[in-house]
Amino acid sequence: xxxxxxxxxxxxxxxxxxxxxxxxxxxxxxxxxxxxxxxxxxxxxxxxxxxxxxxxxxxxxxxxxxxxxxxxxxxxxxxxxxxxxxxxxxxxxxxxxxxxxxxxxxxxxxxxxxxxxxxxxxxxxxxxxxxxxxxxxxxxxxxxxxxxxxxxxxxxxxxxxxxxxxxxxxxxxxxxxxxxxxxxxxxxxxxxxxxxxxxxxxxxxxxxxxxxxxxxxxxxxxxxxxxxxxxxxxxxxxxxxxxxxxxxxxxxxxxxxxxxxxxxxxxxxxxxxxxxxxxxxxxxxxxxxxxxxxxxxxxxxxxxxxxxxxxxxxxxxxxxxxx
Length: 323
Description:
Elements: H1 19-51, E1 54-56, E2 58-73, E3 76-80, E4 85-89, E5 96-97, E6 102-108, E7 119-122, E8 127-130, E9 132-133, H2 150-159, E10 163-164, E11 168-169, E12 174-179, E13 185-191, E14 203-207, E15 214-224, E16 229-235, E17 247-263, E18 268-269, E19 275-281, E20 284-289, E21 291-296, E22 299-303, E23 310-312
Pfam families: BSH_RND_rel (PF26018)
Transmembrane segments: 21-40
InterPro entries: BSH_RND-rel
């Protein structure tokens, strides 16, 4: 067999890749990303400045309130007509009289032959005269107001019918009241639960809705009635709005926070967890630490801000505005 001769092939020399080309491509890619990022940040900055919300800082008071329906008992006594006849008031309504003063005279319709033609009703103690009565003067007293369950108390008050004395009175019936307006009155209110800081002896501010008038009450009893809780409070220095009603809608002030009032959404945290806000100073936005005084709903009262400053309400956008 003949051997076949195969000529030997020479290997081609490999071309060396130039490293400069890779560097140029990588640099170009990095440059592209940088430009794209700068463009993105610039666009986000423009959008952030457009949607940025500012609010001017003002000093104010935030209140944490608790609406209450209070039932009222006063130190009072009904004025009873000694005979049927004509009522002749002597003391004007809402006037304070001393003990023994003549409040009214009764001209009997049928005076007895040996009896007086005019009968007088005198004040048994110093007090305020009222010619309005609801028949509950003896049933609701400061010393027994908290002794009946809430439902029974509510039903009793609903049975009361306020009446104003006319010119004719019936013997043995009440034509008015004498109220000791210098003695404390007692109020009762049902509660879903006891506020955290309430305890016997604590002073509570009560406000009348609408007028904003305030009185100071002192908690005298906190009681658990099973279905609900209840509080009894004593009020001194009360005035006309408390003179006649048996129940009233009031607001108990649980807390008051004074300071610069801003939206709670404007608060942020610093690196150490401290509270602060972003404020606008000229064209710059700066971070300002604050001290939180209290929060009610979506508002907070803080210190370390000056009235008239502008705070950023949506601080999440600030990152696109600060370089």
